[in-house]
Amino acid sequence: MKNFYYKLFTHIALKKLNKIPPPIKSIRFFTFLNLYNLNPQYTYFIILAVSVAGPLALSFDKKVAFYKKWKYIFPAMLLPCLLYIAWDMYFTHIGVWNFNAKFITGIKIGNLPIEEVLFFVIVPYCCLFIYECVRCYFPDFKNKKTADSILQLLAIVLLVTGIFFYNRLYTSFTFIFNALFIGLIYIFKKIF
Predict the structure, then answer these.
(1) What confidence tens digit (pLDDT) does each residue in 112-163 have?
(2) What phi and psi values does residue 121 have, to the nearest 5 degrees?
(3) How far is CA 33 from the centre of its chain?
(4) pLDDT-derived band at 24, boundaries 50, 70, 90
(5) What global pTM score does this model have?
(6) Which of 6, 9, 112, 173 is 20 to 30 A distant from 121 in Cα terms?
(7) 89: CB partners within 8 A, 6+ apart
(8) Angle 2-17/22-36 helices, nearest 10 degrees?
(9) Domain edges within the chain
């Protein structure tokens, strides 16, 4: 069945390529072949690279100028990064999850693949970048009452779900800790 879809997809791609001028045709065709035959062990790494490519390149946008905040962002990301790496190492060690060797490079830091460690740097960077873009491009986008209501409701749902799924360690821990963290935001409102 897989072979059928491959042939069908290749046929459609080649048919479309006939409508493209020759120099561009060869570039697109070889890109298509390279992507299709890509070694799967780089999958996680490529997902991370693609995820960070846009935010990293756009960090130099004049309006956002995110690169000017790097000296504050990277040190601020360090503690949560180390905390989550330790958390991940623990849950990997006790067998809550593992990593499919087919989709990772095999380079490890402790019991974690390098891609998982990079995840804890790249994803927070991308999230902070998106937050900064929203702040810069939509400065009037503030609805504190609605945001507070949604966040408080989310905390309650997370707490109840975490307690309900107490037998699923990762889900339970993650949901309960998120609920507690949101609660701490409201307890120490003056700081946040």
Answers:
(1) 999 999 999 999 999 999 989 988 988 877 777 888 889 999 999 999 999 9
(2) -105, -45
(3) 26
(4) very low
(5) 0.68
(6) 173
(7) 110, 111, 112
(8) 160
(9) 1-37, 40-142, 143-192
pLDDT at 34 over 60: no
Q: If we measure between CA atoms, which residue out of 101, 82, 79, 100 comes closest to residue 90?
A: 82
From 67, 192, 46, select the one nearest 125 (Cα to Cα).
67
Query: Are 140 and 147 in contact, with CB atoms under 8 Å apart?
Result: no
What tokens does 118 get? 């990079």
Q: Kindly give the interhelix angle for 43-58 and 114-137, rounded to the nearest 10 degrees.
A: 30
Q: How far is CA 138 from the centre of its chain?
A: 23
How far is it, in rounded angstroms, from Cα 181 to Cα 187? 10
User: Among 31-45, 87-101, 132-146, which stretch is predicted with the lowest mean pLDDT?
Assistant: 31-45
pLDDT one-digit tens code per residue, 44-70: 989 999 999 999 999 998 989 999 999
Query: Is the Cβ–Cβ distance between 55 and 126 less than 8 Å?
Result: yes
Distance between CA atoms of 150 and 67, rounded to whole angstroms? 31
